[in-house]
Design a protein that fits this description.
With 216 residues, the chain is α/β, with parallel strands linked by helices. It is 39% helix and 14% strand. The protein folds into two domains: 142 residues, Nucleotidyltransferase, domain 5; 51 residues, no CATH class. The chain is globular, with a radius of gyration of 18 Å. The N and C termini lie far apart (47 Å).
């Protein structure tokens, strides 16, 4: 693992003012060319800490999986929200990200007292909140949310590889790698691709359907 462990300075400050259920919120997949943008909301239990929380990008896949399991076991509540490729194309990626975040908060089984959000503020949520730049690097609950969201989305993209094996979703998770761009050039976009994103080329050939069979 690399980078500083995220701390609880922000959470402790809120707890000193009476907040007891503080949800960290983060997303993953904004820059991907395919698949959903996924957000998570996590209310950590200060009495059952999870050690070693970091921004998910600084962790190995094995460490992310291990920490996601500990978060699921020890957190007061976790929630997942997503906005699909069609929604992203319809309303743009920023609004879709905020929609996924709102859905993640709404999916929590326990209503939080306060939201700590990575960089953004979530409209349409009747809760006090604060956006913290680079919150996934510095705030434990946001780092936890980044891990949960990343593990969930990676699993989704691996399952999509089974439906559309010609694109390599299990390897690049939808991001614009050279291999992914070559697959797009060869096959055209799949139904999972974001048609408004630069790099998603117009289909010059029929897109691959389920199990890699060309559509008619």
């Amino acid at each position: 693992m690399r980078g500083r462990v995220a701390g609880r300075v922000y959470e402790r400050g809120l707890e000193a003012r009476g907040a007891r259920r503080i949800a960290g919120v983060d997303e993953v997949g904004r820059g991907s060319l395919a698949g959903p943008v996924v957000a998570a909301a996590v209310i950590l239990d200060p009495d059952r800490p999870v050690r070693g929380l970091r921004d998910s990008k600084l962790l190995s896949p094995a460490d992310r999986e291990r920490l996601a399991g500990l978060i699921a076991e020890r957190a007061i509540a976790t929630g997942i929200g997503a906005a699909e490729a069609g929604e992203i194309d319809a309303i743009n990626i920023l609004r879709a990200t905020l929609l996924a975040m709102r859905r993640a908060v709404e999916a929590l089984a326990v209503r939080p007292d306060y939201l700590l959000v990575d960089a953004l503020r979530i409209p349409g949520v009747d809760l006090p909140q604060r956006g913290i730049v680079r919150g996934d690097r510095h705030v434990a609950s946001i780092a936890a949310a980044s891990i949960v969201a990343k593990v969930h989305r990676d699993a989704l993209m691996r399952s999509f590889h089974d439906l559309y094996p010609g694109y390599g979703f299990d390897a690049h998770k939808g991001y614009g790698t050279a291999g992914h761009l070559e697959a797009l050039h060869h096959h055209g976009p799949s139904p999972l691709h974001r048609s408004t994103f630069r790099g998603v080329l117009p289909a010059t050939r029929p897109a691959l359907g389920a199990a890699g069979v060309r559509g008619g």
